[in-house]
Amino acid sequence: QAEGEGPQPLAGRHALVTSGPTHEPIDPVRYIANRSSGKQGHAIAAALARLGAAVTLVSGPTRQPDPAGCRVVHVETAREMLAACEAALPADVAVCAAAVADWRVAAEADRKLKKDGSGPPALALTENPDILATLSQAGPRRPALVVGFAAETGDVLAYAAAKRARKGCDWIVANDVSPGTGTFGGSDNTVHLIRADGSDSWPTMSKEAVAARLAEAIAGQFERR
Ligand code: CTP
Ligand code: CA
Question: For 167, which of 40, 49, 133, 205 could close a Cys bridge (C-beta 3.0–4.6 Å)?
């Protein structure tokens, strides 16, 4: 243990973290994306590394610097993110914090779409693979602990509990992204940790503090095994 480091309860564990948005190409110069900053996922990767885990961070395009002590795999699309995650297995824990695009353009154009006088093109969409569900249902390659996120509006706890069951992950970190909460792209987060047997609501705190508390909860789970 190097000088200045705290306890390393996750030493010897491999943690896989996804972060950021994905970019889904329309043509060589255009893409579909979302406003995810990657702040929360990157902070989780850093927090797990501080507790001693070997961390693989699979990140979509963000403005975040690569976190210290993590192996970072940079990807653009959901399909690339899934492939990078599968290549990173085995892992003891997976935390899927990425805002994966739900849909991609069904037929990416290999040339720039041009205004040809026939009006705007219609973009047919197709569904992207679900990385969290794939990891949760990976059979013998399933990480022992799989954690997802759920950004919801309305009945946050009920939606997130249903999402946890549907995807087959162990925990869901749910947050309320209604307008006015400032969560998406902001610095603070108000989350609920949902397990199979109940949930805890955490006070509003910085995304770094959420990351540290989640990393502690993950370490606690491994200590209990
Ligand atoms: N997720 C994923 N791959 C996808 C979509 C979502 O890994 N293609 C993960 C996210 O990283 C997050 C969790 O699934 O951990 C929930 O994402 P969310 O967008 O809330 O769920 P969806 O199933 O896409 O449902 P919704 O229709 O509410 O967007
Ligand atoms: Ca989604």
Answer: 133
Q: Which residues are annotated as a binding site for CTP?
A: 102, 112, 129-132, 149, 163, 167
Does residue 34 carry a catalytic annotation? yes
From the CA of 214, how far away is ligand 2's center (Å)? Answer: 21
Which residue owns the Cα nearest ligand 1 atom 24?
102
Residue nearest to atom 9 of ligand 1 (CA): 132
Distance 102 CA to ligand 2 centre (A): 5
Residue 51 has pLDDT above 90, yes or no: yes
- Cβ atoms of 62 and 42 within 8 Å: the answer is yes
The predicted pLDDT at position 4 comes to 63
- DSSP, res 70: E
The region, left, alpha or beta by phi > 0 then psi within -120 to 50, assigned to residue 168 is left
Closest CA to 207 of 109, 6, 62, 1: 62
Least confident of 20-24, 161-165, 203-207, 208-212: 203-207
As for the ipTM of the complex, it is: 0.98
Mean pLDDT, residues 74-102: 98
Which residues line ligand 1 at a C-beta cut-off of 6 Å? 18, 78, 96, 98, 100, 102, 128, 130-132, 148-151, 163
Mean pLDDT of the chain: 94
Inform me whether the pLDDT recorded for 3 exceeds 70.
Answer: no
Each residue's pLDDT tens digit, 173-194: 999 888 777 676 678 888 999 9
Residue 127, both tokens: 């569904």
